[in-house]
Design brief:
Layout: E1 21-22, H1 33-44, H2 57-77, E2 85-88, H3 91-104, E3 111-115, H4 121-133, E4 137-141, H5 152-158, E5 163-167, H6 181-191, E6 197-201, H7 213-216, E7 220-224, E8 235-239, H8 265-279, H9 281-309, E9 313-316, E10 326-331, H10 336-342, E11 347-348, H11 366-370, H12 375-378, E12 381-385, H13 392-416
Parallel strand pairs: 1-11, 3-4, 3-5, 5-6, 6-7
Antiparallel strand pairs: 2-8, 7-8, 9-10, 10-12
Helix pairs in contact: 1-8, 2-8, 3-4, 9-13
Length: about 425
């Protein structure tokens, strides 16, 4: 499956990019054909273009489609009630609403937050903002090991009576590590206060792992549509019944008063369809198997190539505690950004999180810092992420492209000396 990784190479002639191999599926995914069809059908319909808040028939039909999608999202995570699903503009807004909404409800009280050092910027930055604007907020960061898994004993020690919010991502977008959320929740229920709220950003996990909020016993869960073959610009926040959030936007009483503004019916329909597709356990498992198979083929192919070349390379993941589609690779001595640019007309991948790549000041990601990777190795790290659409032929081509590009860069370094 093909897309482009760098806007700088897209010229006015709209060059043909059909040959590009796309291995950046943790950044975004291509919409599933059924998602596209459902959205086109809605766009062409004259019966459901109305405002879902309107009381006439066209508005009622639009409301029906929104409610249908809400039920599809509910089923995909096994929530107990569709009213627990709040539609948002995506993962960033869902994270902001979850964190800001909980803390705002107790603004004048001392509040302690426990989080990890490698959360998405939409988690880290809202916490920083709230901490800077409210002296009653204290933040603790749980330690993680070199594989990106949090230290459960250290986490337990951080819990205190004043801890009001725990926010730990379900899986990491850069290195693919899956956190022990069930154990985290168990510790919170055992050692935390009765009003402790637990949030997890599952943006990267949906469509790659079966998510069951009832089994997780979690309070808040972030969903991001475009990470699992739905449209961009839409997401959802699961809010367990009984959890009280304050709105962070002001307007009318849409989405239980938590998210004012006319619903984006078209995008919500697409999200609903994407969720419906992964609600089928058989189809989800087939998708996971395909991602794992191509990821493992990529892993083994690169191992074989660089063992022959005797290159110093670290390949993370490829085990049961990481996403089935993600590989993080560190090539000693190469510049990862140069490698991405070298291959950007043939292979789309990234140096890490796409959410960090546009920053003007070069710095390593918080994830790579958290797992203790030195700066020189961090700047030599790339991320490859497959999807169920990825083919064996694309994997085999990618192995050759990466191997040759790394060899070329390392050879040029040797020649300089």
């Amino acid at each position: 499956m093909t897309l482009i990784s760098n806007d700088n190479v897209f010229d006015k002639q709209n060059r043909d990019i059909s040959h590009l191999i796309y291995l950046d599926n943790n950044a975004t995914t291509h919409e599933h054909e059924s998602v596209i069809e459902s959205m086109i059908h809605h766009l062409k319909s004259l019966n459901s273009f109305g405002n879902p808040s309107s009381s006439h028939l066209i508005g009622i039909q639009a409301r029906y489609l929104v409610d249908e999608a809400r039920e599809q999202v509910r089923m995909s995570i096994n929530a107990s009630d569709s009213n627990e699903i709040i539609f948002t503009s995506g993962g960033t807004e869902s994270n902001n609403l979850a964190i800001h909404g909980i803390l705002k409800a107790n603004f004048n009280k001392f509040q302690h937050i426990v989080t990890s050092p490698f959360e998405h910027p939409s988690v880290i930055n809202i916490i920083k903002y709230l901490q800077n604007s409210n002296k009653n907020i204290q933040v603790s960061f749980v330690q993680v090991n070199s594989n990106g898994i949090i230290d459960l004993e250290h986490f337990r020690q951080l819990l205190k009576p004043e801890t009001k919010l725990v926010t730990i991502m379900h899986s990491n977008n850069e290195i693919g590590s899956i956190q022990p959320i069930e154990e985290i929740v168990r510790l919170c229920r055992q050692y935390g206060s009765s009003d402790l709220v637990i949030h997890s950003d599952a943006s990267q996990s949906m469509g790659k792992i079966a998510i069951d909020v009832s089994n997780l016993n979690i309070d808040l869960l972030t969903i991001c549509s475009h990470k699992f073959h739905g449209p961009k610009g839409v997401g959802a926040l699961y809010v367990r019944q009984g959890i009280k959030l304050e709105t962070i936007l002001y307007g009318a009483q849409h989405e239980r008063g938590l998210r004012p503004g006319t619903e984006n019916v078209l995008a919500i329909i697409g999200l609903g369809k994407a969720c419906q597709l992964i609600s089928n356990k058989y189809l989800l498992n087939k998708r996971i198997e395909q991602m794992k198979r191509t990821r493992d083929r990529l892993y083994q192919g690169l191992i074989n190539q660089f063992n022959q070349y005797d290159a110093n390379v670290i390949i993370r993941n490829g085990n049961e505690k990481c996403l089935s589609n993600t590989l993080s690779l560190t090539f000693h001595g190469i510049n990862a950004k140069q490698l991405v640019n070298k291959l950007n007309d043939r292979l789309a991948f990234s140096t890490g999180s796409a959410c960090h790549e546009d920053t003007q000041h070069h710095s390593i990601s918080t994830t790579l810092q958290a797992i203790g990777l030195p700066y020189k190795l961090a700047r030599s790290t790339i991320r490859l992420s497959t999807s169920y659409m990825t083919t064996d032929d694309e994997i085999d081509q990618a192995i050759i492209l990466i191997t040759n590009a790394v060899k070329e860069q390392l050879s040029s370094l040797i020649d300089e000396y």
